[in-house]
Fold:
Amino acid sequence: MNKLVSVVAVMAAAFLGSTSARAADVEVIHWWTSGGEQAAVSVFAREFDALGGDKWVDTAIAGGENARSATLQRILGGDPPGAAQFNPGRQYEELIAGGLLLDLTDLATKENWAGFIRPASISEACLVDGKWWCVPVNIHSWNWAWASIPAFEKAGVALPTSFDEFLTSAPKLKEAGVIPFAIGGESWQISGAFGVLQTSMLGVEKRAKIMKDKDIELAKAEMPAVFTKWREFKQYSDEGSANRNWNDTTNLVVTDQAALQIMGDWARGEFGVAGEKPGVDYACLALPAAAPTVTTGGDIFLFPKQSDPAVEAAQLKMASMMVNPQVQALFNNAKGSMPIRDDVDMSLADDCMKRGLEIIGNDANVAVDAGRWLSNDTTGQMNDLAAQFWADDSMTVDDAVAKYVEILQNAD
Amino acid sequence: MTQVAQSGGSAAGLASAVAVKPRMRRRFNYQSVIGTMPMIATAVGVFIICIIFSIIWSFTNSKLFPNFNFIGLDQYVRLWRTDRWIISVQNVFVFGILSIGLGMVVGYLLAVFMDQRIKGEDLFRSIFLYPFAMSLVVTGLVWQWMFDPNLGIQEAVRQLGWTGFEFAPLVKSETALYGVVLGGLWNGVGVTMAIMLAGLRGVDAEIWKAAKIDGIPTWKTYLFIVLPMMRGAIATSFILQCTGVVRVFDIVIAMTQGGPGVSTQMPAIYVIQHITDRVNVGQGMAAATMMLVPVMALIGLQYFLQWRSNRKAGRA
Structure:
């Protein structure tokens, strides 16, 4: 009899354990593989493991496209990861509609996410029809140009205050044996830099008219100048650019072999890892300096629905950890991005991050990330076009504008 | 069958053919059918049913989740209006003709070289076959480095003193595809060589003696006597290479990612990118269906030829 009781007791304990307090492994798919990114993601992993019990299981897949594909395929295949990185926007709208994501509304209401996440366009990416479906972890802006101060000094020219000024001084940089314009030949890099140039030439409002409201006439009127200027940049790039990673490209600026790279603020992490100082070794330029802008891109984590309640509990813990002010400060400083809340300890922030926060403080400077308006399909077509135009000199500006307009007209 | 052939294409003839056929067939072997059931189920399930669904979805506006909102030929219209797809189709033809042609020629030459009873044949055979044991991704990366203007062959030769030397095919749109062909050739030529060598060794030694007595030079014997005798080896290596061409994907991703621009894009990359990251299953399926067309045409041609030769045999 005694024996039987003890067996039942052990079984009951085991059963209870499995439903309430059992620790869970949460597999996280992300594409943070470069030095600066690794430093940032390990902040999350460390802080999550420190909460006790549950474990962060890291699945890093190089390349955003590859990582997102893997996540989507695994969710559709019935083997969803515990958490997955996406960019804010329309990349996961069908996952929400299909009911495949964990609803975070209760947690968000309890912690008052809507109260501290700013600017509003960041929370809109996760707050769909009054429910929270994902956690924004940072704000990334594409609209930066990274300059090597020693390279500009070597050529005897001043740091540019606009892209036109840069193009004027580019021949001198070339003469001095520096690669004036560093870019990697991957289509997203080309397309991203093209987008930065577009925003700087058109301004926030006209850009929104074209990409959000699909104003065809405006696109026809404004885009030829952008494509023409973009082609001017090509002659100042180096021949090794084909197929080069963004971080290898940033490294050219870090090592002063190249003068300028247009890249989002995740590049700052690379300078940090190399021990460079802003204002001394490198400069972060928001061009044109007279009317700087930031885009509200960034990263979000979504939590696919799980059958195991222990994993679900761990998912909620992870979501809460990610918006924690202390974690936000540590994470974003390593990553080079801006925190999603104002009340974090910014004593750790360097000059570039402070400059970014200054610009984002004024709503007129905020260029909403194009991914919020356009589907991945459409942005993919635009990437293809930008890359094709960059690589193929026989493609005329008129052809490119016509294609651009066609993509806009067919956008869903 | 003679009877059928004589009665020509008349309806009566066809009817009698249908009636005659079962009687002429061997007794139905139930055991072997049951034994191959799993294979049949896999073949039908994976190939036929999936292909049918691919074709159906290519007429819908499916995004992430396949649906049945039919939109007619819109996906195909968009497909053939897309520069990238048209470039992909051109590329796969150029890539196919070049890599199969070069593969056959170089493979045969290597096999002839190995056939000279050279010392250390085993070693050479391993060296030539070794690349095939490596993943195309590894091959592609290694060749990407070799072709890199700042690290690869170009820089090495320049450091030797020829400062004007230029050899970096992957950086220019016009030449990138040829660079990919070279990488693929290095990977695949060993297998062609091995098959060709087996074919060469299969040729009767008496033929060689006879050719020698007739005073035919060795190269002529290789080219005009031995080569036509190894039709089987040639067909095998040809088909093996064809399948490699249609699904070419990984080596392009590793070497150029389809760049510079879109100049080395391939149909398979288009399909996979659209059904995954670009979340447009309908468009991806339309492209996949287009990829199926040449394959089906080839299979149809093969059936037609077989049918014709059967008919000829029947008549004789």
